[in-house]
Amino acid sequence: MASVLCQNGCGRDCGKGADGRVFPTCCKSCAYLKKERGLCGHDIDCDIRANEAVCPPWYWKSAAVWPEPFHEEVGGEYVKEMGTKILQRRLPDWKVVRCERIEDAVLWDKYTAKRAQLRERSVAKANIQPETAESIQYSANTTLDHRVNEVWLLHGTSEEAAKAISHSNFLPSSGGCFGSGIYFADDARKSNQYASRTAEDQKIMLLCRVALGGVKVLPEGQDRSADRFAADPSIDSILGTTDAKEFVVYDSAQIYPEYIMYYQEIGTA
Ligand SMILES: [Zn+2]
Ligand SMILES: [Zn+2]
Predict the structure, then answer these.
(1) pLDDT of 145-188, one tens digit each?
(2) Residue 246: which of 220, 211, 213, 268 has the closest Cα?
(3) Residue 62 lies in a domain
(4) What is the pLDDT of residue 259?
(5) Domain CATH number, residue 166
(6) Could you tell me which residue ranges the PARP catalytic domain spans (predicted)?
(7) Looking at the domain assignment, is residue 11 inside a domain?
């Protein structure tokens, strides 16, 4: 039987209900975005059906050129406002002076390959609701793959690491209360402790997509040898709690550094 195409003209097949009923559009995001903003865009399930979700998220500028290779650093007011909302939830005396979305085909391919691998392994659903989700619009949040516990998390870093990202490279800093690993938080105060100052007296924080995969939740308090869990093939990350939640992963392919935020204290030059 020939498939029916989405009425929004996105070119994808119509979605189907569990009972076999055919919907007028490919997914709810496509219907919503067409109505609200006059464009096509998809949720993660639609992307998985269409191409195993190796395409960039719909809101990236590069979605238009894919599958051609791409590299874009997209700034602008919208991106800066979102960064400010996330930062000022916990750091009201700081402001985002610049925020860039890094759209990089090399990093994205590496990340989506790992994400697909975790999906095939069918990891256990973890009950994680990072507070970053509350500052990101609904239609962007629906691009997260909850099957692999994909979330947006913060990572305080250095200028050197930010430069590496713009060259298709990612150099995560590592180490802390839970042994070796790459650390994230959903509370900007925590990530701020790991961010180093630039010569211009700014600090740098990344807002990353992180595919947590199988999550080992630790009892409260530090555990300096928590990296021992990395040997367990069903564990891809740990969630520990000190004065804030700390998320630790061991494989940089589980991280996509989507936004670089440059921020500084309000009142300084
Ligand atoms: Zn559609
Ligand atoms: Zn769709």
Answers:
(1) 999 999 999 999 999 998 998 888 888 777 789 999 999 999 99
(2) 220
(3) no
(4) 94
(5) 3.90.228.10
(6) 56-269
(7) no
